[in-house]
Amino acid sequence: MDEFEGLSPLRMPTRNRPLLGLTVLAVEDSRFSCEALRLMCLRSGARIRRADCLRAARRHLQVYRPSVAIVDLGLPDGPGVELIKELDHATPRVEVILGVSGDDDSEARAMAAGADDFLPKPLTNLAAFQHKILSLLPVERQPIGPRIVSHESIDPDPIAYLDDMAHVANLLDGQNDGAILDYASQFLSGVARSAKDAPLADAASELARCRKGNGAVKAHLTVVTNLIHQRLSKRLAI
């Protein structure tokens, strides 16, 4: 579990920091995607804590109640919709529950589980992020007066992307377990699309299709692992 602290001690939202006073729990297994959320919260004045799996998120929630929960739907120890359902039925309820994913059918699943709204990946638009959360907050949590609308585009540190590559490389090292392959292909497909890495995104999607259709899994796994190691070689160069 990682904790990223906001910079301002103020608690009331302002024109240029409209989420000041809020705490966001980001339940996200991708370092790259979480870095995007961290930057958005930092620019908006919110504090952010990260949980990289369901188990870590539940530990967080035993200790404190965030203002906003942003839950990725594909997590290593289960589907994010399970946590969304728990949060929706909890008393007191988290003020804002958002599902997040890059999969086409994820929004409907998140909303059916009880999410208030949905954030599609990649997460790049700061104004859209702020508006989504503010639109779901009660009036007393809104900034007073006109708000500065930022058109800033968020670009996460590419090192975070390489951290994700290293994570998957460790998962796939000598593994033929079907559940691990399914998780790794889903994870890679999403994070590669967020990073605009089309070759890896396409290869991961093809691996997932082969897993579902009993295709040439071994050959496509080799392609995926080679692409991962190509990207990790850049980290060694750095």
Describe this entry's structure for a reader:
40% of the residues are buried. 50% of the residues lie in helices and 13% in strands. The chain is globular and about 60 Å long. The chain has a 6-stranded mixed beta sheet with strand order 1-3-2-4-7-8, sandwiched between helices. It has a two-stranded antiparallel ribbon with strand order 5-6. With 238 residues, it is an alpha/beta fold. The model is unreliable at 1-10 (pLDDT under 50). α1 links the parallel β2 and β3.
Summarize the structure.
This is KDP operon transcriptional regulatory protein KdpE. The protein is an alpha/beta fold. The protein contains nine helices and eight strands.
The CATH superfamily label of the largest domain reads: Response regulator
CATH fold-level assignment of the largest domain: Rossmann fold
Biggest pleated sheet? 6 strands, mixed
Give the class from helix and strand content and strand pairing: alpha/beta
Distance between termini?
26 Å
CATH top-level class of the largest domain = Alpha Beta
Keywords:
238 residues, alpha/beta, Rossmann fold, 2 domains, six-stranded mixed beta sheet, two-stranded antiparallel ribbon, globular, KDP operon transcriptional regulatory protein KdpE, Sig_transdc_resp-reg_receiver, Bact_response_regulator, CheY-like_superfamily, phosphoprotein
